[in-house]
Design brief:
alpha+beta; 3 helices
């Protein structure tokens, strides 16, 4: 997604540059205006893309602020891990049994740094904790 964004930025700046050039040279005004409009729309779309399409999965280093086991309304249990670095971003690990959720939460200590693997669910807008890769 990062490389795709860079490519879109390059194309949009190229179109804007072409539009400004053809407008100043007064050679092909219609093509220049179209390039300016398309380049500007593509630039705005690229900026918005980073806001509304966050990374879907990846790894991150977090400092644990709090760990809690809660019961979902549907009978599932979830281990919620809140981190200090990004204003209290919370990762969730869901499982069917309370023992599994407590065992997963038992691996984490408050104040320690961990390398985790996560996925972002676009439907629920939540970060799901896939695994703990290690402690730093």
């Amino acid at each position: 997604m990062y490389i795709f964004g860079l490519i879109l930025f390059a194309i949009s700046f190229g179109l804007i540059g072409f539009g400004v050039f053809t407008t100043l040279v007064r050679s092909e005004k219609k093509k220049g205006r179209i390039a300016l409009v398309v380049g500007t729309l593509l630039l705005i779309t690229t900026f918005v893309m980073y806001t509304y399409m966050p990374q879907a999965s990846g790894e991150d280093r977090i400092t644990v602020e709090s760990v809690a086991v809660t019961e979902d309304g549907e009978g599932a249990y979830r281990c919620s891990v809140t981190e200090q670095d990004y204003d209290g971003l919370t990762y969730h690990y869901e499982t069917a049994s309370e023992e599994d959720a407590e065992a997963f939460c038992g691996q984490l200590e408050v104040g320690e740094r961990y390398l985790i693997s996560f996925e972002y669910d676009l439907d629920t807008e939540e970060y799901t904790l896939v695994e703990i890769k290690g402690q730093e």
